[in-house]
User: What shape does this take?
Amino acid sequence: MDCGHFYFIKDQYFLDFPDKFLMGGTNRPLFYAFKELRTGIFWMIPFTSQVEKFRRIYQHKIQRYGKCDTIEFGEVLGYEKAFLIQNMCPVTPKYIEKEYIEKRTGDPVRIDGVLESRILAKANRVLALQRNGKKIIFPDVLKIEKALLAQS
Assistant: This one.
């Protein structure tokens, strides 16, 4: 797996870790943000075309807190998307179905490096806050991470 690429997660993941806040599945790719070297866990971020809905949420958070690290916006295959860091999830290679490939070119789907850097910075901040007891990520990612590590 390559950081900054998009992957589909196997349906088995959602069966093994039922959580109503998990987004994805074999019909919906997720963005692979980073791998934690300490644990070997991959952190995936879902994205959506419901940009206006999440722009309103983003603006509300900006007005309320002065910033928003849980949502980022950018283009995927020429269309604006909302990256939902608030719904990111841990995954191991066992649960990766396949890479998201652009049909027209046969190349892996990518985003530009500036957007990737913004997403990575936000994802790292949000995960650090989650680890320090702040409930920012909607799925119970620390519980899922613990179960994934127990499988190893």
